[in-house]
Amino acid sequence: MNINMLRNFVAQDHELIELIAVDTQLKALANNYAERQLEIPEWIGEKTVEIDGVINAAVKAERLAELKKIKAQESALMDRGEKRAVLAARREALEKMVG
């Protein structure tokens, strides 16, 4: 992706994989500036913060969807203790991640 595309990137219009790819490019660009002891352009930091926020929201939404699915599966498996315990462990881990 060229510099103008990075500068004009609109995070809300893209899928998670694209967001992570652009985030990686921006962070690499910032690191390159830092390694050369150059001032990092302000727009790089602004875009990184914007994209990080959208990525975090998307990850949280995915975890909440998985949590909902697991809770439904747990309910359907009430007579299968072992499977229920595995799902409960994953649910607890997701709940901690989501906050």
Plain-language structure description:
The structure is a single chain. The chain has 99 residues and is mostly helical. The protein has one domain (3-98). 79% of the residues lie in helices and 0% in strands. It has four helices and no strands. It has helices at 3-7, 16-35, 42-76, 81-98. Helix 3 packs antiparallel against helix 4 (81-98). The longest helix has 35 residues, at 42-76.
What's the topology here?
Elements: H1 3-7, H2 16-35, H3 42-76, H4 81-98
Helix pairs in contact: 2-3, 3-4
What descriptors fit this protein?
99 residues; single chain; 79% helix; mainly alpha
Shape: elongated
| Number of helices, where a helix is a run of at least 4 consecutive DSSP H or I residues | 4
Q: Helix proportion of residues, in percent?
A: over 70%
Outline the biggest β-sheet. none
Number of strands: 0
How far apart lie the N and C ends? 35 Å
Instruction: Give the rounded overall mean pLDDT.
Output: 92
Order of helices and strands: HHHH
Beta percentage is under 5%
Helix/strand-derived category reads mainly alpha
What's the number of domains? 1
Radius of gyration: 19 Å
Flag low-confidence runs: none
Q: What would you say about this model in short?
A:
By secondary structure, the protein is an all-alpha fold.
